[in-house]
DNA sequence: CGTATGCTCAAACGATCGTTTGAATCGCGT
DNA sequence: ACGCGATTCAAACGATCGTTTGAGCATACG
């Protein structure tokens, strides 16, 4: 077995792009393998099925994304972090991912998956990355003690919707020529954090 | 030609349900017509094509929804309405639509369409209902003069994402047995309005 | 050298898709 | 009662889908 099959990676990269553009059903394996320059049967050989390929596209990005989120969260002083800091730990890794060309496509894939309400995919996400969301929710609960449990979950859901919506469009937003990429990213992070903080903590 | 063909309406109603459940590509005309109890060819006879059927599903709901939104907006005292009132004019009709059983499905269809970034559908929505969004944006600009144009658009986009996300899940949220439907709706409207107002108007 | 083993390839499989067709049936004005 | 347009119907069309197959090629190991 090859340790890093070029065919496997080309399929994954092309799949990410085409899933973002045409959706999971809309992107056929024939279009996908043709665009990747590999044989049609290579997908089933390397991944087993189209659905397993979808899961692998998610796993590759989300493993890194959620590891970064947890690392940022744990780096904060336990029990003393501010709401803005916790939000930054949640938002910045996602925005950094959506900032480079290929990661931006993945955020659109993610937004699509949210909207599709696909039960298999939701179970996959919950099983593999639910613990991350749980840790952040616990932090939010500590920082917003005046909110009831239902109210807190509700606001987090609203913030999640806003962020998903925003990041699925990020990267397509025209950036002014007089600010650097890093500056643009930082400004966007600050906007998102302030928006989320305002929505979460209002009385 | 029949003025209100039962076949036409059954197709539209079933299409809304199945598009919400399985997406536009995922719901086939064979499943759809079988569930509606009509012949397969009836879709192409009454609507011309599957894509025209999709547009008609949108048109039927959005005509009423946006008319209600504009009526609520114009009923406000011109130039003196508060941010919360304008938000209510925007949010309440959508939530009322998503409150009855069939409208709730439509909101999921709408959320799906947002995530799919389909160019044809976006053009259709922009051409037919763009003027509504423009009027609300003008009101927001009047009420939030301290925000730059770019900043305002950005926050409206975030609010739109949050609302779409929330309303696509609304109706699935379990309602406590001790509050009436009307009460539940009103509480939800108030939550959404306060969340949106906080996100829009924060410094 | 011979032969496993990992991988690629063209071709085909059955299933399902949206659409079209032409005949059968319905419903109403004259 | 008759005729005609509107509607429904079963059947078929070509296209495309995900998956499987078996032969061919490569590389490494005994």
TrEMBL record, chains A, B:
The keyword Cell membrane does not apply. Residues 5-65 form the HTH tetR-type domain. Pfam families: TetR_C_30, TetR_N. Keywords: DNA-binding. Residues 28-47 bind DNA. One of its GO terms (molecular function) is transcription cis-regulatory region binding. InterPro entries: DNA-bd_HTH_TetR-type_CS, Homeodomain-like_sf, HTH-type_TetR-like_transc_reg, HTH_TetR, PsrA_TetR_C, Tet_transcr_reg_TetR-rel_C_sf. SUPFAM superfamilies: Homeodomain-like, Tetracyclin repressor-like, C-terminal domain. PROSITE patterns: HTH_TETR_1, HTH_TETR_2. This is TetR/AcrR family transcriptional regulator. It comes from Rhodanobacter sp. FW102-FHT14D06.
